[in-house]
Structure formats: C-alpha cells, structure tokens
Amino acid sequence: MEYLQQVLFLIVVGVAAFILSKRIKHIKSAIQLGKDVDLSDNKSARLNNMLLVAFGQQKMFKRIIPAFLHLLIYVGFLVINLEVLEFVLDGILGTHRLFAPYLGPFYNILMNVFEFLAIAVLFSCVVFLIRRNVLKVKRFHAAEMTKWPTLDGNLILVIEIILMLAILTMNASDQILQTRLPEQYASTGSLFFSGFLIPSLEGFGDTMLVAVERGAWWFHIIGILAFSVYITYSKHLHIALAFPNTYYSSLKPKGEMNNMDAVTNEVNMMLGINTEQAAAPPAEVGRFGAKDVNDLTWKNIMNAYSCTECGRCTAECPANQTGKKLSPRKVMMDVRDRADEVQTSIENGGKGLEDGKSLLGDYITKEEINACTSCNACVEACPVNINPLEIILEMRRYVAMEESGSPASWNSMFQNIETSFAPWKFAPTDRFNWANDLKSEKADS
Length: 445
Prior knowledge:
Shape: elongated
Largest sheet: none
Radius of gyration: 28 Å
Low-confidence stretches: none
Mean pLDDT: 91
C-alpha cells in the first residue's frame, strides 16, 4: 500500500501521455496535408514576432478590458504551472510539498503569489462567462458559433474555475492538517486567500480532512492532464500553437499578395525573361488556387488550428458588417474542420480527400469568398497573426482560373485589364484625357 499512490499516479500520467501523443500526431498529420512552403528565412525577425505577439500579447491590447483579463489568465497559467511541477514530483516520489523544506520562508511567499494568481484567474473567468452569457457580446453569437463552439468556450472557463477552487481547497485543508499532524504535513505558513476557507473545514475530523486534501490534489492533477488532452479537441489549442504560428507568420507587408509561381514562370517565358525557373524543364502544372485543404499550404492549416474563435476578425470585416455572409472566423473554422475530417478518414482507412467533398462548395461558398474586399482588416485584427485572406484569395483564384466561375462583372474587369491594362474599358492612350479636359475647362473659364 505504501507505493499505491505513486503507481496510480504513474498510470494516470502514462494514459494521459499516450492519448496526448496520439492527438499531437493526428494534428501534425492534418497540418501536413497542406503543400510545403519554406518559412525558415529571417529567424531573428520571426523570433521577435513570436516574443511580441504570442508571448508579449501585443495585439490583444487593442481591446484593453478583455486584454487585461486575458493577461491575468495567461500569467496565472504560466506561473501556477510552477506549482504543478511540485505536484508531479510529489506524485512520482510519494512526497508531500517537496520544495517546502528547501525554500523555507520563500515557499510561503510563492504560495501566496500562486493563490493571488488563482483568484485573478477565477475572477477573469467569471467575467468572461458574464460577457458571453449575460452581456452576450455580439461576436460570440454569430451564425458559425453553433452548439459546440459556444459550449467549448463556456466549458473551458468553468473547468478553469473548478481547478482554481481545487487548489484553494487543497491549501486550506492542508493548513489545518499542518497544525494537527505536523509530522506528516510540512509547514507552509499562513496563506491569505485559502485562509478564508479554513472555517468551513475546521469541523472535519482528521480522516475527512486528509480525504479532502488528497481528493483536491488528485482532482487538480487529473484535471490538468484531462485539460491537456481536451485542448487538442478545442479552440484552446492556441495555448500551444500560438507560438509556432506567430513565428512562421508572414514577414511581408500586409497589402502584398503572393504571386502564383507557375503563372509568373509562364509570363517570364513569354516575355523572354531568363530566370532559373524559366530555364528549367517545364513541370506539370498543378491546380491553380485552392479547392480543398491539400491545395493550401501547411501554414494555412496551422492558422486554422491556431484559431481562438474570438471573432475579432469577423467583427472588423467590412463585408460582414454590411450583412454579407463572409465571416473570416468561419473560414478558419471550416478549414480546420475539413482538415480534421480528412485526416480522421485517412487514419480510419477511409477515402480521405476522395470522399466526394471539398473545402470550397461543401464548407465555404462562392458567395462568402466573393464578398471579401481584400482589405486585410481580419489579418490586422487577429491576436495570433492568422491570415484568412490568403485562403480566400487562393479559393477565388481556383474559381476564376479553373472553373471560370467568377461573377460576370469581374470577368469584364479581367478582360479590360488584359486588353487595356486597367479595369476601365478605354485605351491606355486615353487614360490621361481627363487632365486635358480639365485644362481646357480652366482655360475657357
């Protein structure tokens, strides 16, 4: 019986690690459905992006109130995990508050800091629940926020509240046991916030208090392990993916669109421009634009898995604001859902990409992508540098170049650009006539 808790702990950790490793492998394979793209350049600028945007929460502070509350949760998540390290070592070694004898009075300071952050996280989660369910902030209740996305957002907040309460309950019962069973429970000193719970537990006997303390300890550690697995099914995967996603985000100016290499190469060859690509033997040209997730890049799919579903992109989208069906958030959710569906099918021996469905048409409609103004508002608004516009442009390219399915007014514009080098239907030589007319009018007056 002496080692039973350690054995149980190792079994629980092993099961969680096994499930988590399978989920990580699944998500990695889903991201790799996309085409390869080299984003290994300019490492210093990329690292700076990651430190400022992901670690430093730079873009969150465009909305100061949710940014501050999110910062409390973020800092609490980082710092409280230091206490989880002690939990893990205690579970493996069969000890109790392993660090207390070594840190002395500093341990009490650390524990009070941890409890302050636990209260801050608890407070922030309660406010976020009120914003979602009482104040009903508009961006949390759009058409794409169906039962699961809405439940997911609420569920994670409730889980965090329960985990913080478990820490406080554990600390409160532990403080009482320190006075009753000092030979078994190392002294932590007085803890301010959990101290408020002590009166409600003082009437318990020693056996019951030990059960409460151990129950809260097990609940917290199992809760953390379950949370680690859960986030791989949740929008909260951004906790992990925000860092690589910002590191690999585009370093180009936001208004710069990616050229299609195959088209650029053909144009260079027609113009007699000798480039390495033009000189190379012509390869089979793949699909123009994107119809399904495998036509996107792996970075596009990573963007989708990094999406927090916060809706800032959709809230800033001028097309969405004027009643159009386009929602950049929905585009990212659809890409993630399609990639996940395809990868799950492949793992189960199914048809994968040959299932008769595609991202364009079955998930995202032409009406949605045609509503986009290419203004980059969604890209600028995203707290983790997600780029919905790049995906929308690739799908529009597919519709225009593979299906010839662009709206008639667009086709007229394309023809004018091809023949007159401008969207308007008049010769380039007449382009400056307005200035001559203006000059004549001034002369007459």
